[in-house]
Amino acid sequence: MRHTKVKDLLNSTTTLQEINAKGWVRTFRNNQFIALNDGSTINNIQCVVDFENTPEEILKRITTSAAVSVTGDLVESKGAGQKYEIQVKKIEILGDSDAEKFPIQPKKHSLEFLRENAHLRVRTNAFGAIMRVRSVLSFAVHQYFQEKGFVYVNTPIITGTDAEGAGEMFKVTTLPAENAPKNEEGNVDFKQDFFGKETCLTVSGQLVAETYAMALGQVYTFGPTFRAENSNTSRHLAEFWMIEPEVAFNDLTDNMDLAEDFIKYVVKYAVDHCGDDLKFLEGRLTDEEKSKPQAERSEMPLLEKLGFVIENNFKRVSYTEAIDILRDSTPNKKKKFSYIINEWGADLQSEHERYLVEKHFKCPVILFDYPANIKAFYMRLNEDGKTVRAMDILFPGIGEIVGGSQREERFDVLVEKMKALGIDEEELWWYLDTRRFGSAVHSGFGLGFERLVLFVTGMTNIRDVIPFPRTPMNAEF
Ligand code: ATP
Ligand code: MN
């Protein structure tokens, strides 16, 4: 007999005869009531066991975390809290479980503890909800771009370009760690390596995506990205997923418009399709906020915060204006920032970004036109000769969620910039070809998918929105 998903049973519009459900026991009360969950929804279905006619050996095996199959009728529930329940006629234990040894007990566990049990934490309400929201968001990403006619491009994960300039890279090699072959200069001889050259895991698909935008017009990538930066923060992973659209003929304003429209679309999609999960996560967040000091509490419940982002324009502010605001701000004057802002040209730290978003503007902010020397080589130089057409989107509670720019399309200007920064022109010969053969204004950005999931789920640590996080000193599972 084919089983029916718990979600479909709970959404049924009529009672049903002879249905089968399969799932894991969340709780078993009074030797009679099973709360059964199969992952299709955050909600459990109540299964009422006929304990008088069920053998004692079977009843004993109905334990938290056991896998069971129940057959019976879907009937109107007499209990409060659910419309339907299953009147069980037959129960089969598919997989026994020693409930006492099961690490996830029906009580509140710390997120740290759950991280150590990342293979089982998905059996909790919170992680089930987070992972369903993550899945829906990733579908929304594709839907948004596909509806707009973008072409999905799979850029390489192993890259031979180390000039992407977005942070430390992981080496990919088949050479032995000990006694690797050496060249005449005494360095490791990568000519003898698998690819005949040094290779790494990608930190961004942008440079290759640009070559595709120069033929297909509108493209996007959505894939894993790796950064070996030793930043053990709640916003950084060593392995994360990035979405990178790249669009021919878009200038910086078009780029900001696209990013803002895209974010609003996917957030709205999640709100429209993840109602039960987001309601649960809102409750979780509200509980968590209660344990914080008043000053650090977020003023809005989760769904209101998401609605606010969907409905309001992001504030667009130039770097220069932002510096003025920060210089005159109370935490700067009282030396509360770890990095005091004195001069134009300073790189913004996450404390500054969060001040602008959370305290000053109280809405998402797009900062643009940054000093050239704190941004990557490929960003388009402005007429002032000192700023570039960069834009970062800053979100409450997150900081930077998007980094993007209009790209330098002028061959001479780009080459000059690369020379000044000591970037090997020969290595990037193929990138420079896009500027040799039919160059055009184009723009793009990178959005860190986990930071988006953090925002939508109201979680605070990025390790809790990816199934098996990779961070410094941690690659378990
Ligand atoms: P940050 O300053 O936060 O380290 P970045 O300037 O290095 O970010 P970009 O190189 O512009 O980031 O990458 C684009 C986006 O990818 C960022 O806006 C962010 O959302 C995401 N991102 C960057 N690094 C990480 C990371 N280590 N883990 C998760 N997401 C990241
Ligand atoms: Mn970084």
Q: What features would you describe in this structure?
A:
- The chain is α+β, with helices and mostly antiparallel strands.
- Helix content is 32%, strand content 23%.
- The protein has an 8-stranded mixed sheet.
- Helix 4 packs across helix 7.
- The longest helix has 23 residues.
- Manganese (II) ion binds next to loops.
SSE diagram, text form:
Elements: H1 6-10, E1 16-29, E2 33-37, E3 45-48, H2 56-61, E4 67-76, E5 84-95, H3 111-116, H4 125-147, E6 151-152, E7 158-159, E8 171-172, E9 199-201, H5 206-216, E10 218-226, E11 239-248, H6 252-273, H7 275-290, H8 302-311, E12 315-318, H9 319-327, H10 330-333, H11 350-361, E13 365-371, E14 387-395, E15 399-406, H12 411-421, H13 429-436, E16 442-448, H14 449-457
Parallel strand pairs: 3-5, 6-10, 12-13
Antiparallel strand pairs: 1-2, 1-4, 2-3, 4-5, 7-9, 8-9, 10-11, 11-16, 13-14, 14-15, 15-16
Helix pairs in contact: 4-6, 4-7, 4-14, 6-8
The structure holds adenosine-5'-triphosphate and manganese (II) ion.
